[in-house]
Fold ROK family protein.
Amino acid sequence: MTIQHTWNQHVVKKGNKSIVFQYIINHTPISRADIAKATGLNKSTVSSLVSELLDENLIYESGPGESSGGRRPVMLLFNELSGFSIGIDLGVNYLLGILTDLSGNIVNEEKVHFTELPYEQIQEELFTMITTLIKNAPSSTYGVIGIGIGVPGAVNKEGEVLHAPNLMWENVKLKSIVEEKYSIPVIIANEANAGAYGEKKFGAGKDANNLVYVSAGTGIGAGLILNGQLYQGNNGFSGEMGHMTIEVDGPQCTCGSNGCWELYASEKALLIKAALVQKTAVSSEISLEALLKLAPEDPHILNLFKEIGTYLGVGINNIIQTFNPDHVIIGNRLEAAKHYLNNPIVTYIKEHTQPFHQNELEVSFSQLSTHSTALGVAAFTVESFLQIELVTT
Ligand SMILES: [Zn+2]
């Protein structure tokens, strides 16, 4: 009986502490009295919880704040520099790694490009990047509190990458591999889910309640924020929209099916089509960056972008009809081509999406450019460390 009682009290106290902490994070700087007023907790409870948070260096006190007469209160601030998070976007032909503080401000950044590396070599590049980010992290109370990695594939709840067709990975136990190496908590996420979360928290989707993030890179994935929460499906595999069939008798896809959306609307599709136009093999000379340079003077290339944009519109139309979102955000590599893609996408939607779906619908490109996924996974690890959840009001 006694044990049960103690445990209950502990849970209640822990709950109150996270309420107070979360309130400070969201309303920094704030006084003890204002926290008590807003949370309904009594002043002595707030004071003792604040003392604990101060001792843990998760918050700090600053000089007196503004006050209308009387004794000026001491203000409490979230100590976003008490720890740092690593966010990695593991792409098919690149690694982007960032070190952020606990508020998601980027402190350091590393990037490396490669083509068609086998798993072992990507792992080596990944370890080099993580080691560098850890080594260059500013000193802090908690150090590097977690490593988040976004991958273009299906990830199960144990952090195993089950299937990443464009990387040609099967059953890679990435979470345990990286945790074993660094002894730091690791979160593995689907890159589109992480991207959706990044845009919701830091980017174009801050005000959206039902948001679809279309990650258009080598392949295509979608991340869903539904009713303000990240939706990941029964086992975490939702959003594989790059593999929805848009042509029954279409060419075969790396996933084993035929006529998948990403065969028509991804960066890979663009590069394959560009090689056909230029009558060469897909090579390092044909890159998105090179095509963007050529487009203004080459009507064939311009047409390719239009075609890719139209096909993006085809899939996005299907997504809108399914989820009735308030915001569709297009991100990842093809965000760089937004000036060429926007018109055909918008035109397709205007002409094909049912009018009632178009009410209160925004379609835009990522605000975080290529950083949505890295910021999203960095935020996952911060939240797991702080044990708070994104609260949407
Ligand atoms: Zn497919």
User: Anything to note?
Assistant: The chain has three domains: 2-78, 84-195+373-386, 204-367. The first helix runs from residue 2 to 27.
